Amino acid sequence: MKVTQRTVRLELAEPLRISRSTMSARDAVWLTVEDDDGAHGHGEAVTSVYYGLDADALERLFTDVATDLARFRDPESALEALRGGESAGASAPAAVGRATAVPPAVTAAVEAALLDLVGKRAGSPVHRLLGAPVAPTAATARTIGITSPTRAAAQARRLAASGFEVLKVKAGAPDPEDDVERVRVVRDAAPRARLLLDPNGAWTPAQAEALLPRFAELGVEAVEQPLAPGDPDALAALAERSPLPVVADEDAVGLEDVRRLAGRVHGVNVKLAKCGGVHAALRIARLIEGSGTELMLGCLTASSLGLAPAVHLADRARWVDLDGHLLLADDPWTGIGGTDGFVQTSALPGLGVRLRESKETERTERTERTGETAETAETAETAMTGKAGEIRRADMA
User: Fold this and answer.
1) Angle ∠(333,338,342) on CA atoms, nearest 5
2) Pairing label, strands 267-270, 246-248
3) Which of 86, 92, 331, 397 has its CA 20 to 30 A from that of 207?
4) What are the helix and strand counts (H, E) for the chain?
């Protein structure tokens, strides 16, 4: 198999402020796997200051992966080896004999590219490969960052009018009263919306104890990671007393983290880039089944390509927060929707996303709507590796 990569810049439509940082852009590295017949599978990893990944690191890691994948005769055997920890793309501790752990974001992107290609070779969308006969559709949360009450209210009204049923409000401002006021105006502006709250670990236990009842009164449905990560026992103790569901995020990175929290918190936010991909997410889902801890599917800010694998799992989660592509000024890929508040997969083989290229995009989107055969979409999609583009690198804000 042939493996190539390309690095691009993803600009946000507007800066997103959370408790620990403000982001205006990030880099994405696209991995393309090509079989002997010229079919392509694609995956994406994005840079992250929090997870210590910049574009240079991702490019080096993908170069190592490319060398390893070249030894496999087909994507099916490569995917099996990856999931068995026998490939350079496998995250530790599953990887055998590797001194340095492969970041889960890299494993997730490699797995996505292989799944995309395997699905295309089989003529099957990824969700069917995973055992779901019906294309998943789910209401996704839409994020409102830390901003002024006036701006938050305007965003909430606009999003509710566009069809969003779930709004996630970022919290963790220096003055907690600002968070309360922001949620209050969002509730008034979108009275029928389900509200989620995400302080990104900004509160002390005492602050959380005092604030959570107030947010419960405002109708918040659940809160993500209210406490600083690193003390899962404290998070579990808070969940036991909380008047609203507590969802672990930064404290629930991988399977072993979730094992320690299963049955002790109300939910875990599974992001493929932090747990290691679709297979790892399914293992987590099986682990928490029946424990009283429910699944939330989250994401990093990324393109439709980066989010597509998680959308194929969307019907398995209580909470779906897959809006990272909606935060971009210009999403270079298309195929999972979301602008009306709902993400969905299609019947197209593989991940079902395509690079936006005017005429090809219009043709493939018509194919998706009318239910025509998928050959047209496949023809347009394979243009990706031949598309010229400047490679730009910049640190994430």
Assistant:
1) 145
2) parallel
3) 397
4) 14, 15
This prediction has a pTM of: 0.87
The whole-angstrom separation of Cα 281 and Cα 36 is 30
3-state DSSP assignment of residue 24: strand
Cα torsion 255, 144, 317, 343: sign: negative
Q: Cβ distance 218 to 184 under 8 Å?
A: yes
For residue range 77-124, list pLDDT tens digits in order.
999 999 988 776 676 543 333 335 799 999 999 999 999 999 999 999
Residue given tokens 């694609």 in the structure block: 42
DSSP notation for 238-266: HHHH-SS-EEESTT--SHHHHHHHTTTSS
Closest to 345 (Cα-Cα) out of 383, 374, 376, 388: 374
Dihedral of CA atoms 246, 328, 322, 354 in degrees, nearest 10, equals -160
Backbone angles phi, psi at 138, to 5 degrees: -150, 145
* Matching residue, tokens 């994948």: 69
Tokens for 340, please give them. 């009306």
Rounded Cα distance between 172 and 200, Å, is 7
Do the strands 22-34 and 40-46 form a parallel or antiparallel pair, or are they unpaired? antiparallel
Are 178 and 152 in contact by the 8 Å Cβ rule? The answer is no
DSSP result, 171-199: ---SSHHHHHHHHHHHHHHSTTSEEEEE-
**Cβ contact 241:212 at 8 Å:** no
Phi/psi zone of residue 181: left (φ > 0), alpha (ψ -120 to 50 degrees), beta? Answer: alpha
> Taking the CA of residue 91 as centre, how many other CA atoms within 13 Å lie in the half-sphere pointing to its CB?
21
Q: Tell me the pLDDT tens digit for each residue of 313-352.
A: 999 999 999 999 999 999 999 999 999 999 999 999 999 9
Q: Which residues contact 380 (CB under 8 A, 6 or more apart)?
A: 354, 355, 357, 360, 361, 363, 364
In this structure, what are the phi and psi dihedrals at residue 13, rounded to the nearest 5 degrees? Answer: -65, -35
At 296 the three-state DSSP class reads strand
Strands 22-34 and 2-17: antiparallel
274-290: pLDDT as tens digits: 999 999 999 999 999 99
